[in-house]
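Case study 2.
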Amino acid sequence: MSGVTVVLDQLVAPVPGGIGRYATNIVRALAERDDCPRPLDGFVPRIGREAARRVDGLIPGLDSLTVSALPRPILARAWEHGLAVSTRPVTYSPSLFAPLSNHGHHVVTIHDAVPWTHPETLTGHGAAWHRAMGSRAARYADIIITPTDAVAEAVSRFLPLGERVRVIGGAPSANLVVPADSVARRDRLGVAGEYLAFVGTLEPRKGLDALLRALATEGSARLVVVGPSGWGDVSVTDLVAKTGIDPSRVLALGRLDDADLASVLSAATALVVPSIDEGFGLPVLEAMSLGVPVIHSVAPALLEVAGGHGIAVDVHSARGTIDLAEAITGLSDAQLRRDLASRGRARAAQFSWAASAERLAAILAELV
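Prediction:
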């Protein structure tokens, strides 16, 4: 059996985001399987030795790690034009950062339809690059993976994918466990009392501005914001000033490791996911796995992942601000919170990285 080369660029990206979390967990779970194709070789853009050691630590089951001579921006541009592509027999790319060509077999993941459906929420360059790579995937990929049926349906409206699409979703990370010192961790971070949580990269499509407007209307709930800065100059401080909410009600923590994230998220009254669009919405399942109620927008992927076990609000409609504020106020009902927590745990238990890796291994077995 020939092996597989896995492109792990998102693990070394400036902002790994949800795709980096997806790639780390699914490749780690794949590497642990007895039916994992071997050798399983990682490939990353040019990085230093310390960063390479970190990748090895994240996925210890790799048989080798190849570091490109080209940095990520140049490699992205080259692959967009079919240059410097891999000559390896089978390549799996957990994102559209993929060495697509007519040589060998390619499995590519398209995580969302945002570059086609909501390009205004991305940079002009970013939207154009993703659309170009989507077209290359439609031309060269043997199998195209999406995280939800919603993304498969949406992307298929723009690209001729035919019967090549497979759906492999995400799951809560095994590392997302509430530590014994969670109270001390929250104290260190300045998190206390009752609060709502927002988890995600700070960028326009995540809808943080809509959530802050609703909170300004609602008038009392506090918000803890977890996530690194993305693009678009989305500043929590600026959004607070723009929406008029009392700054003392909003605490921005930036990126957290899994132990701190679990400590903060598990004690939240609810997670609010007000995104304009998503491909999967991993924080929804992560919150549910910890018994935290979830309020989410009606983005199709979020509806699919939550499966009716959260509170869905049409956040970006004319009544969105009012409806979101009412949903938040409604969480004062203790019985509702208990019901959502119980149903959410059951929903999250239906997803696992082991199951996702099993599906991925079967797909790769078709090609190696």
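The radius of gyration is 20 Å.
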